[in-house]
Write a structure and sequence with these properties.
Helix content of chain B: 55-70%
CATH class of the largest domain in chain A: Alpha Beta
Number of domains of chain A: 2
Number of strands of chain A: 16
Number of helices of chain B: 22
Structural class of chain A: alpha/beta
Order of helices and strands of chain B: HEHHEHHEHHEHHHHHHHHHHHHHHH
Shape of chain B: elongated
Number of domains of chain B: 3
Largest interface: A-B, 71 and 61 residues
Shape of chain A: globular
Structural class of chain B: mainly alpha
Distance between the termini of chain A: 96 Å
CATH superfamily of the largest domain in chain B: MetI-like
Number of helices of chain A: 19
Strand content of chain A: 5-15%
Oligomer: heterodimer
CATH architecture of the largest domain in chain B: Orthogonal Bundle
Amino acid sequence: MMTISILKKALLASAMVLSTTAAFAEDITITVWAGGSNESDSYRMDAIEMAADILSKEQAILGNELNITIEKKRDFGGWSEFKQAVTLAAEAGTAPNIVVSSHLDIAPWSEAGYIVPVEDYLDLDAWPINNIYGNLLKIASFDGVQWGIPQDAESRPFFFWKETMSKIGYSDADIEALPAKVQAGEYTLANVLEDAKKAVDMGLVEKGYGFYPRASNGPDFAQFYLSFGGELQDPATGKLVLDKTAMQAMYQFFVDAVDAGITRKNHIGTDGSQWYADVANGKVAMWHGGTWHYGRYTGKEGNNDFFDTIQFSLIPAGNDAGKANTITHPLVYLITDQETDRAEEIAAQLINIASEPRINTLHAIKSSHLGITRQQANIELYSGNRWAAEATERLLPYASSQPNHLQYGAFSEALWKGLEASWTGVQTPADAIKEVEAELIAILGDELIIR
Amino acid sequence: MKNFNWLALGFLAPALIVITVFFLAPVILTGIFSFTSMSTSTGVTGGEYLLNQSGLRALADKGLNQTTLDQLNNAGYVVDEQGLAVLAEKHGAATADEMRKLHENGQFSARRDMERALKDLKANKIRSTKDRKAAAELFKHSLLNERFETEAKFRTALVEGDIPTEDHEIIVTQAYTGWVWTTDNIKLLFSLPSTLRYAGNTLIYVTLTLIFNIGFGLFLAITTFYLPAKSASTFRAIWFLPRILPPVMYVLLWKWLTWDTGFIATTLSWVGVAPKNWMLDTSTHAWVVVVLINGSFGASLGMILFSSAIKAIPSSILYSSEVDGANRWQQVRYIILPHLRWPILFITSYQTLSLLTSFEHILLSTEGGPGRATEVWSLAAYHIALDNYGGNLQYGLGATFAVALVIIGIIASLFYLRFFNFNEMVAKPKIEG
């Protein structure tokens, strides 16, 4: 009898243990959507999976069974399809828990209530956020609220094809000194026009291939506006700024490039694959791009000798009013508004863990982006990578960013429209500026300062 | 209702549903949206109440007095007795006492600073981030950056924050995050310099493409009519290809033809012509290509309709004209064209309306370039409402552009009906009178 009762008790006890464990078991599915990503950016989502594993283990130690299933999606066509998908899903109440998108989306999405601030859940003074570069964290904030965590960093350098440069008269030492001269403002966009023209005139590159800009709208063109002394946002009031002199000088630079025969008049809309193939193998004398291009040039485009063939620097200054600069346009991890607070909390924990220097380094190196935390310099995978190390040092300290402002999209579109019209010869820069000004006054009203 | 035919309704039902869901509903919704300030940031389904730094800036521009602005801006976090009492309730009296000793009446402008102050607790640490964040909220006085679901809740918060009653209205209006009814889109439409350009582009596009469409469709129909039946159908089949190809493929072929590394450029380079992009070199190039792409696509429809209409002309008329010594040109001028009046009216009005609203071939080929030279009205509406690098899509303004197009379409239809004397054509045949 005794044994039976002990057995009974043991059974009962284990049943109770099992049932309590079952009561604590929590199953949750976290969806991650990443915009503008391809295979090399897989760690944007895989990092969340790794974080889920760590979080589950942490919880297991505390005696909680937390089963996290991660659903990943990155095939959206282009950026506009991705943004439409996110906003429509958010309106329908089926938004993915974590979104990897441009920091520019923070302003409209926070206003619409699609996203919740990460600072509601995370201690900004704790690891690893306290190790993230301050300027990057600021880019992921809006109106003083920390809405997201930077997912990666990048910047947009100016590139020179070394062989062409040496053929127009630059010694190896001159080429090595170029980045410093650009930074000091001694080598300007006027020199770019001059040297690219030499390259075309000497027949080193074809007509229209002396200077090869980006072929579609993007943050890159704001850099040239800054080069001519423009300012995007007034620091005191937070309003957007249209500096007409700087903008017109910027438009004029592209018109001059077309007139000099170093840039094609119909360059805009050039097919992406053709563009990469042209710049990666010496068909072009000078161009500008992004730090992540390194992966493309050395990978798909087959340039096995990047450092011996290509020199990179900041975007040169345009005139005395401006200075050499670059723009960083980090993607950010954002948490969407969900029915339950718990889903938001877990999503926040996951992006926090995914920002661990070691995990972020996987993404940085695989996709040729730059790191987000200072400690990555102490991780061999990062510090041992020449591109990451040199690009971080040469570019990131001078990087500014586009402002998070509700109307920045309209501002950027108008800027681009004017540039497009001048570049293609449909309007003169002066006429284009007049139209841009009228358009911006109508759309932005009080939120615009005109200089 | 005796004569009501349920069977007929049954047969019509699918068509009615399709018309309602895919035509009427979008048109009505677009009409409604055009009178709203709807954008990504306002959302579609309604708003809440949120005051942030941008909102304060806008309030300053709207003339809210500085005292109230400062009051809103500086409320921040205060370690007061009220907050300490709740802290004592949640974390024990000892915690509240230690906090009182450390930071009594302390003021903090940011949440981060408040959390740091809570971290100063040594003997009674609040260890979990979640609890610390909740504790910080106990001392919150500011209503900045907090979303209030309803106007009532927001107004209560304003009252609790001692904001002067006379300022409530302007603050509530500014803080609402959702869309509002407005006629600003229409004003904006008339004040934007680009509107005129889009209108001009659309006029060029519709006129030129229409002329090409009808002219070429007629040409094909008449010439194939005089061909032997077999070769006629072969020619018609070839000219029908643009319509049956998927648009993306069709436009891609045009791109291969016109790119600076494409067929035309390569062929001409053999005779010494410098390669250039024959689609985007100048706005004239772009227009020619856009008209050809859309024209060849549209001409096939005209060709089919005109061909069958010509076939319907009693052959006896044509034979007798030959007996009378009429040549081909006279047959076309005096017999065929007069008989084609109806189909020409149909194709002209149908194509005008569809050209006004169709932009897919332009989007795929020139994307409105170079320099917006081929940006037509409907493409502009699409760009405004659904495509913006910066992320804030202007649904309301885009809808206004679309509605303007609907109005232009209706005016154009009325004009056509009058011009072609529609009433006379649908008059009852006198013989059956």
